[in-house]
Each structure stands twice: as C-alpha cells, then as structure tokens.
Amino acid sequence: MEDLKSKINLDNLPQHIAIIMDGNGRWAKKHGQPRVFGHRNGVKAVRETTEGAAELGVKYVTLYAFSTENWGRPKAEVNALMTLLVQTIRKEVATMNKNGIRLKAIGDLEALPSKSYKTLMEGIESTKDNTRMTLVLALNYSAKWEIMRAVRGIAQEAVDGKIKPGDIDEATFDDALSTKGIPHPELMIRTSGEQRISNFLLWQIAYAELAFLPIYWPEFTREHLYQAIIDYQNRERRFGKTSEQIEGDKS
Ligand code: FPP
User: Fold this and answer.
1) CATH architecture of the domain with residue range 15-141+184-235
2) Which residue's alpha carbon is nearest to atom 16 within ligand 1?
3) Which residues are catalytic?
4) 215 in Cβ contact with 190 (< 8 Å)
5) How far apart are CA 7 and CA 174, in angstroms?
6) Distance (Å, rounded) from C-alpha 166 to C-alpha 29?
7) Cα gap 150→179, rounded to integer Å
8) pLDDT band per the 50, 70, 90 thresholds, residue 231
C-alpha cells in the first residue's frame, strides 16, 4: 500500500473528489445478507475514504449518501439508512474534530426526517471550524433539483431588479448552487461497475475525470482511492485545448 501511495504526486492532487457509493445492496446479496448489512459495511468504506483522502491532503470529498430518488426504496430500508446516518454522525464527530474534518451537507436537507436533520446540523456546527478537509454529504440530493432551485432564485432576483439577465454568468450560477464556495470536483468515482452519473453534481462535473470501478462500495479501500488518484494524474486534462497548448502552459 505504501508503494502505491508513494506513486501519488502530492503537488497534483485533485482538490475535490466526488463519489457515487454504489453497490451496497448487491454486495450484501453476494454475502447472503439483507441490504442493510451492505449499508453498514458501506460506512467502513466511508471512514476509510475520509481518512485516506485527508491524510493525502485532498481538501474536499463529496459522498452521494442519499438521492431524492432513494425515497422510493422500501420504507424499512429508508429508515435504516436514516438511522445509520444519525448513528454514524454521532459516533464520528469526535474523530472528525480530532482529524480536522469539517462536515457539510448539500441537498434538500429540511425535508429530511427531523432527527436526521437535527443530528446533521449538530455535526456541521460542531466541526465548522476545522480546516484540514471538508466532507460533504449529499443527502436528499438531486442535481436537477439543485439546478431548478438556482434558476428560480436567479430569476426572482432578476424580477426584483437585483440583477440584470445579461449580467448572469457562471459565477452567478455557481453561487446559487448548494455547493457555493466549494471548488468543482476534478475527479468523480463511481463503484459497482455502473457507468452513469445518476443526477449527481451535473453542473459541477463539467470537466471532471470519471472513474468507474468494478467493485461494490463496501469493498472500497484506501488502495482503490490511491489507484483512482494515480490514474487521474496519468490522464491529460486538456479543458478543450490541444496537447501542445497544455505542454506550452506548463513551461
Ligand atoms: C448505494 O448502494 C448506496 C446508498 C444508496 C447509500 C449509501 C449509504 C452509506 C454508505 C451509508 C451511510 C453513509 C454515511 C455517509 C453515513 P445501493 O443500495 O444502491 O446498492 P445496489 O445498487 O447494489 O442495490
């Protein structure tokens, strides 16, 4: 593992890594266990990822923990996920404070069950002064919801005469999203072998490198994180330019 870690160029880390944690249910099934068993083991992978990323010096990790669409799952599973969230935040806040990790959340948070919302807010409040790394939980999140909300907010400002339509630019839009102030992810990882974005950070991943891993989320370890970063560093990020221009920019 140290060998893999030593291959990472610490001067070229993605500042922000976004992760679609997929495959908990299939992993549980593979082990002949109920889906909740998969989610519980998914928390171990969350810890592993958070610690691994913070140790390297990554500044932001965003985890897709609950999508707006996830409300459609069986009630018992939704309840189990919400309980797991509350338990995990309560249990991990002290460790987050010890390790300098600030908790944030994006999504339609006020629509969460009141206990989950309250615990989440307490976790955010208690870790708000930490600066080493920010862990962003996407909860009751949907990128289309977020974009619609931003559009409505900006349109209202235009109607109120606070902004002229011609002055609306990318920065205006960035500031209207729930990720305001957070740099866009340079790397997005999805586990479970599915190759979809599933309504996650659609605006913010315009230039992100995508990594689709053929493992289930509970199997995800630091080594997978290291390897994804190494692969990211070996790719050439061109932002629409030519290879020659990128080489020129470096000199
Ligand atoms: C996807 O697997 C996983 C989720 C929808 C929930 C992720 C939640 C956790 C890892 C636990 C709680 C997280 C935190 C941050 C405390 P799936 O159920 O869609 O798996 P499947 O596609 O195999 O059915």
Assistant:
1) 3-Layer(aba) Sandwich (3.40)
2) 85
3) 22, 70
4) no
5) 34
6) 53
7) 11
8) very high
Tokens 């069950």 — which residue?
Answer: 113
Nearest CA to ligand 1 atom 8: 65
Q: How far is the CA of 83 from the centre of ligand 1 (A)?
A: 13
Compute the C-alpha angle 4/5/8, nearest 5°: 100
At residue 25, the pLDDT reads 97
Q: Which two tokens stand for residue 86?
A: 């509350």
Q: In a 3-state reduction of DSSP, which class is residue 66? A: strand
pLDDT in tens, 22-67: 999 999 999 999 999 999 999 999 999 999 999 999 999 999 999 9
Convert the pLDDT of each residue in 59-107 to its tens digit: 999 999 999 999 999 999 999 999 999 999 999 999 999 999 999 999 9
Q: Which of 19, 20, 21, 41 to mutate to test the pocket of ligand 1 (most atoms within 8 A of CB)?
A: 21
Please give the single-letter amino acid code of residue 38.
Answer: G
**Strands 187-190 and 133-141: what pairing?**
unpaired
Q: Which atom of ligand 1 is nearest to the CA of 63?
A: 15
pLDDT reported for residue 203: 98
Residue 241 predicted with pLDDT over 90? no
Supply the DSSP string of 137-194, one letter for each residue: EEEEE-HHHHHHHHHHHHHHHHHTTSS-GGG--HHHHHHHSTTTTSPPPSEEEE-SS-
Using CA atoms, how far residue 63 sits from 6, 9, 138, 230, in Å, is 25, 23, 6, 20
